[in-house]
Amino acid sequence: MPEAAEARTAVGIKALGQDELLWLVESLDQPAYRANQLVRWLYGRRATSFDEMTDLPVKLRETLEERFAIPRPTLVERQVSEVDETRKYLWRLADGVEVESVGLPANGRLTVCFSTQAGCAMRCSFCATGRSGFVRDLFCGEMTDQVALVGEDFGTRVSNAVAMGQGEPFANYDAVLEGLRIMNSPLGLGIGARHLTVSTCGLTSGIRRFADEPEQFTLAVSLHSAVQATRDHLMPGVRAVALPVLRRSLDDYALKTGRRPTLEYALIDGVNDTDEELEALVGFCRGLLCHVNLIPANPVPGTGVTRATAERVREFERVLDRSWIETSVREERGTDIDAACGQLRQRRVAD
Ligand code: SAH
User: Fold this and answer.
1) With a 6 A CB cut-off, is 313 part of the ligand 1 pocket?
2) What are the chain's domains?
3) Would the pTM count as exceeding 0.85?
4) What is the predicted pLDDT for the residue at 208?
5) Among the atoms of ligand 1, which is closest to the Cα of residue 128?
């Protein structure tokens, strides 16, 4: 058996997206609607065995049972913030790989931040995830499981999910899209498309594909500097992406979809919080339908990153506002349990 196929079988049936489930049932001479039944059982009802799927023919259940496992991530560790209600989870996947997710309750809503890869290849200098390197892409079911399991732990419906955990979603585009579709489907997790957000470090081929997707998913782009040299230094993995090319892909995205991409900007003391950087940011945003989300940078050991002062954050907000650029400052959540932006990694507390 080829290596990829072997990995799939170990990960089980939830490695398959909706189109692949359709292909599977058709290859077993079953009508197409069986694929929908499978989606409802696997994701909506969170079945743990094929036996439970009582509206499927017994013969089909037996065949599926022979071919596939229905693995679930197992909980290795769960931490609860003492300053807010944030919870961080470390999961072990079927092959032993570990990833983290975060649950962020607020005002009766629950947002789940999920990982799209174990580790990350992008090596952003201020982020903990890239420091341990890239391990592997996650399958769609491994993403939907993170979201569903966090919802189960809180005992509430998940209202929002953001692909802002470990990994670069557009480096695992197809599986991420399959995952979003199952999260969105009324047969799956039933989360509104606008409440599903993907954050990318700015892979323009992904931004262009995303603009063509029929669903109204939300796009966020980690900009962090509108000065090429600063951005190259902060985000070496996307050095090949020239800022004018990124700007153009965002313009096209906004024109095509009519939706406003978010630009994430982690403010780091003395690096990207200077007047020159601010001016470049305003220039980048001018005439672009966008929303700037300022993130006071979170400390990550070994990176030497210091958060910009509150005055600099306010100054950025003031100048952007004055330039008619929609701006917000991201509220810090779960820093005491290293659950905030940029703090997720492959590590247990005891390590
Ligand atoms: N790879 C994707 C998804 C990561 S999302 C991306 O780059 O967008 C996590 C967000 O947190 C990104 O905007 C990332 O740049 C940001 N981030 C990383 N390290 C951070 C830190 N130390 N402080 C604040 N934000 C950080």
Assistant:
1) no
2) 3-67 (1.10.150.530), 74-350 (3.20.20.70)
3) yes
4) 98
5) 19
